[in-house]
Each structure stands twice: as C-alpha cells, then as structure tokens.
Amino acid sequence: MDRRDFIKQSTLTAAAFGLSGLTNLVARDAHAAAVDVSFAAEGVFKNMVDGASIFTWRFRDLNGFGPGDLSSGLVVMEGDAVDITVYNDLDRPINLEIPGVLEGTPAVAPTGSHTYSFTAPSAGSYFYHDNVNGEIGRAMGLAGPLIVMPADGSNRLYAGGPAFDRQYTLVLHELDDRLNSAVAAGGTYDMSNYEPNYFFVNGLSYPNTAGDGDTLVAMNVGDDVALRFVNTGVITNPMHFHGYHVDVATRNRVPETTVITKDSVLVNIGECVDVMLACNQPGAYPLHTHYVPGVTANGVYVNPYGGALIVMSAS
Amino acid sequence: MRNAGMKHGHHPPRHGGGRVGGGTPPGEGARTFGFLGPGPVWLSVSMMGRERMADGRRLRTWFFGRGFNDDRSVPSPVIEGIEGQMTEVTLSSMMPHTIHFHGLDVDQWNDGVPSTSGYVGRHQGGPGGGGHGGGYGGMSFGRVDGYDNLGPQFTYRFVAPHAGTYSYHCHVDTVLHFEMGMYGTVIVRPPDGNPRTAWNGGPSFDKEYIWHLHTFDSSWHNEMISSGRTVRHRPDYFMINGRDGANLLSDSTTAISGGPGETILIRTNNMGYQPAMVHLGGLSFEVIASDGRPLPAPVTTSQQLVAPGERYDLLLRLPMPGVWPAGVDYLDIRLNEILGRAATSITAR
Fold it and tell me: Max CA-CA distance within chain A?
C-alpha cells in the first residue's frame, strides 16, 4: 500500500477522530512532513451526562477541527517535525510535555505563548499534558493523545508489529468536582483528597460513549482491531472486556512478554497500553473499568447515564 | 456432558427454582468447600443476607444460592465447568438480577448485561412504573427500566473456552449489586475433568484454594439503588472469601495448610474495587496463568498485584515445615497506599 492509500484508509477508519476533534489526522503525502498545530489552553464549563456543569481545562486545537470536550488529539508519522504552539488563556502558568519525548519544557505564563518542537518518535501511543500543575493539570483535563504511526505507512502498531484493520484511541480520565470547583475559584486542591465522581472515555460518559463514532468500537467478525488505551487521568483503570479476550501488545510502547492474553487489562496512571482484539463473534458487548464506581456518574450506574463504559459492536 | 449428580451429589431443582446444587463435603482431596456443577446449576437470589464481620457488626448482603462454602453468604458459591463442554446455569429471581460470566467470552444473549442482554425477574415498568418505582428517583429497583425482560427464570448457556479461573456476578446496577456480594468464582477444569491439573498439559497440584478478594464499604450496605450515596467507595472491611480480621486465620478456605513438598494452587480472583497485592509470607511462587489463559512462561515472584476484575493463578510449593504469614494488601486506586489488609497464614507440617 502506498502512503496516499494508507492515509485514505486511515482517514476512513479514523476520520471520526477529526470530526469530533479527538484526533487530528494530518493528511499529506510526503515523509517527514512538517506538522504545525496551535492549541489554546482554556477553561470551559463541561456538561456532565447527568446535567451538572463543571469547570474543566483543555487544550483546544485552533486549526478548525471541532474541539469536543476533550483536549485535541494528534496523529503523526515517525520522523515528522512537529511544532505545537500553545496559547495560555488560563489564570496560571502551564507547559506541554510528552512523557518519553518532550520533558522539562519551559512554562508559558498567562496570556503568553510558546512553541514546543520535537521530532515524532518511534511509532506508538503517547500523550501530551501540562506538567507545571502536576496532577491537577491532568485532573482538570489538560492532556490529550498523541498517536505516532510507523514511517513505512503500514497499519501496524509499530514497524513489524501487530497489523490491524481498525484502530481506536480510548482516552481514560476522570474528575473530582470538588477539585474543579476549587480551581474555578482560582485556588488549588490537596490531591490527597482526590476521589473522582465523573469518569470518561474520550471525554464522554455512557450513553454518550455509544453515540460517538470515535468511541463506539464498531467491528466486523474477522477484524483485527487495535485499541489504544491512554490513561491521562490520575487513577488506575482496570479495563474489562465482555465477549473477548485481547492480547496486550505494548505497555508504554514496550512489547509485552509476560502476561499477554487478558480479559481485564490494568492501565496504570499515565500509561499507554495498546491491545489487539481479534473479533471472533458478533454482538454488542460492554468494555468498562472494573473499578465499578468508575462506571457511574456521581454514583448513578448506567441507567439513565453512567461513566466509563463503552460499547463494542461486531457484525 | 458428564453426569454431575454422580460425582457431586447434584440434586434436581426444587419447584419454583429454589437454590439447588451439589456440595462436596469439606476435606475431600483438593476440594476444601462446596462446588456447584459441572452439569446444570440452579441459582436463586437472596437479598436477606447478614454477614457477621470480625468486629461483630452484621452487614446486609445479597448473594446467589446458599453462598460460599455453604457456611457464609458472601461471596456466592463456586461454579465448576469443563473446557469444551456446555455449561448451563439457571437463574431464578423475581427481583431484577442477572449473571455475567466474567472472562468466559459468552455470546451477547448470555452475557448478563441488562442493556444488551436483558434481565431476569419480574417485569419492571418505565420511569416511575413497575412495582418498585417509588422512592428510587423515578427508576425501578435495579435501574433496568426500558431493558429486555427475560422473565423470572433464565438459563445461561456457554461453552467454557479454556481451563482456568473466571468469575461471575450480577450485572444489574452493578456498582451496588456487586458490592452487596452477588459475585463468585468459576473454575473451568481441563477437558478430561481432572481437578488437579490446571489445564491440559499444564501444571498439576495437590490442593487448590480460591482466594476471592473483596472489600466492603459498609455505608453502602443499606442502599437499594445506586445514587449519589454510592459514589466514592471507601472500604472499611478487607476480606478474602467473605472473612475479615482475625476470622481469616481460622478459616479453612483461606488459611493454607499442607505437607512439606506439596504443591498448592491458589486461584486469586479480585472482585473488589481496589487493586490487591497478594503475598505469601515471602515464599516465592510461580504465576502460571491469568484471566483463564496460561502465561507464555511461568513467572517466579514473591508478590502479585491483582487488579479489579483480574485473576492470577499462583502455584506454591510448600518448601519445609513451618508457618508463614500471608495475605492481601488492598491499595488505593490512585496512590497505591495500603488501605487495609486481609491477613491469613500458610502452614506446612
């Protein structure tokens, strides 16, 4: 497959990323492209699934892809020269770091801007986040996924790695509304008191997870599906699959060798876990955290609304 | 299918679908407590449990069948199946409940999730409707309004895919029904039914123990539907197999005993809301399987983290006569700090 076809196919399978603003697929036809992105770091009142309105932070892509409720996502290719310019519209300094790629970067003062530059590293799942505010930055939502595709243009997790027919990026995070209230008032929060009460996949809670093309995992029997869990929150998430076992391919881009075939996959804080699902039966099956309070919205379980539960639908 | 009645004292169902199922007397070979199956299993639901904790408090519990080991309400009984064979579990309940066979990769119709698979029980109406609508914020008990009703009795069927350790639990208003005790362990035996081999061609063992790992937030145990009061789970009881505190040391299902040189299989099954660090008093052991699948190669270690929903099968060879402390540290989902401990022991003599 040549690169143009790859982009087309990726656009087909991942197009909804762009539509919802989760992952901004940068289409081009040369290797080692230059990728320029501009993010506004901003505060926004986010509507919870139960009607509550809670002040959150996000990095919003200014290039026109819809912002969604989650920080924008990026898909780039190995070797790309990436510039991310951050405009800080918040009331306190922030920065942008990418664990394993871009660390210890300068802060941006309120109303200021800074361009963070890096060369896209080896293929895999990453995330970017504010690290000036530590865990509060991530708990407030100042983090998003960065997906690096192999330079050979293959639909693989990495060159020579598992090949997939479809891929989904599933960003896991959560919030404790008491922290958000404190930050909205210009204050801070003692993170030792952090106990979240709203939980998200790609910024959405059930049933909205099932109505979003990036988050409803649609498959055909026979497909090999890559699922990229990116935990930008500050709790561990044991993700349980109904209907299927999966193979854990990588943890923080390191191939898994010891505990591979699982129905419950622990995704640690700040961890990126890529799994492969060989779709071998039709049906609709939940995929959810088995920290079951994480399936609720402020304690309410699933009906009429809940938390970090998504649906896999195979035909 | 094997005749379960021959081997396990299986009884036919009582009229009306009451709890029935064979129990094996304690102390028979590898079996330290009662199992249901292989062969058809009938389960009813009790929402009248009262479990006595080590401090003397009695907490309300809900559970399947007659509970664990026939001597306590929680966890629910162990269900046994055989790889490659059809397992049938019939649930009878007037109140809305289901069974989700966790890790058994069953098809959608047998998956026990109310929104996609329906619920067992008397039909519950729309918001405010049904026989139990009042007082739950417009939702019926179980939050199953609008979902398919399977009637008051339903038989779940699946072919057990691979020998190993699995779970089952109610998936109705799960955050509460699970906490109340509606969960248990499923053991799938190898195709030949050998109860002392982990899987065909896998390790064999002299005795096996199930460590069902769980916690209670006692403040949740008087709720009847999830609500703003079931957010922020703060466990105050830390258990293995429904026992906590000093009761763990005297409990034959948790305290491990055997002769020097014997090989013990410990099937850990975390059905709690906190990650659990399992240790065997510093003794090293082999982790041979997780989530019903063998590891590519056994991993030798002296502690194993078992996250909520995970199972790890641990193979311990008792090295010499002696007594070792053993147990489980339940960890905070955020800071990995120890919230509480379930301490038991290992004795070789």
Answer: 53
